[in-house]
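Recap from last week: sequence in, structure out.
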Amino acid sequence: MVRIGIVAGEASGDLLGSHLIQALKQKRADIEFVGIAGPKMMREGAMSLFPIERLSVRGYVEVIRHLWGLLKLRRQLLNHFLSNPPDIFIGIDAPDFNFWLEKKLKNKGIKTIHYVSPSIWAWRKNRIKKIKKAVTQVLALFPFEPVLYQAENIPVSYVGHPLADILPMEPDVAGARQILKLEDSDLVIAMLPGSRQSEVEAHADLFVKTAKYIYADHPKAIFLVPLITRETRQIFELAIFNESESLPIQLLFGHAHDAMEAADVVIVASGTATLEAALLKKPMVITYRMSKLSWQLLKRMRLQPYVGLPNILAGKLIVPELLQDDATPEKLAAAALMLIADKSKLEEIKTTFTAIHHSLRQNTAEKAATAILAHLA
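Predicted structure tokens:
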């Protein structure tokens, strides 16, 4: 029996991990997976020693608040793997957590694969020295990443992004609207405030006020807000209640993909959801708010002029970004309405996002599984 240690840090890592486990099991039936897994990975047979939610913390201030618990969990996990050594360890994203773990395991002779290059191209470029000490190989999702690792003689494979394999080149807008019981003639705005509780707390009031401005201009607009937990739904419900206005906001349990596919425009917190919106060829306004301290620290370490993956992959500002102090209801509403009205811009966005989709479609899980199993040989 081959034993693979695996740690995913949040929902996006859980999705990547589930596809990877599927591909590995198709190639070898004698593999077991143990570590930290989300529900999708567990459905594929992974054993989770701790809840994945324990790692889903974002922003400097938020991490500091949970630091003691994270350090204790990481030490417990290391002790488990040292007592029960895996043949290979795979860290999926969660770089600050996984690189420490990977370095400790690599020093004990265990091969370590890091799946998802951290954004060294965006900020904290000096991390590449730390990565070199921690990993046997990096599996990179984006085509501009391998050259950075090759320059440091770090083994790397470009495997593409699994979302590009999953999503069709042409979105089924009519089908998504049928699922959500929307009319073809409706003006549909999808609003994605983030998956974490802290993100929804930061964006709920902003998004509700933005909806109010858009609704004043388009009284037939419908707003879809997909949320994944009862807690985040309650936060958004309170923001709606506080506005004391009747707005056509539909809160959905899940259905983020359907909401974006059905939408005319997407207003989205920066993160993986922006890439999914791009692969669905959707015009979008990217936004983000965090604590002032976290923002000041992040600003000083930024290397890219953009934070949104669609803009970084396009190599230009193809969709607007309104961050921190620029993230106001008036500005978000104006940017969304401008996109809806500009037909030539909409065509440019679709052409650019289609090209990005082709570049990322690489049969990712298959390529990643092949790279990993080569280390067993």
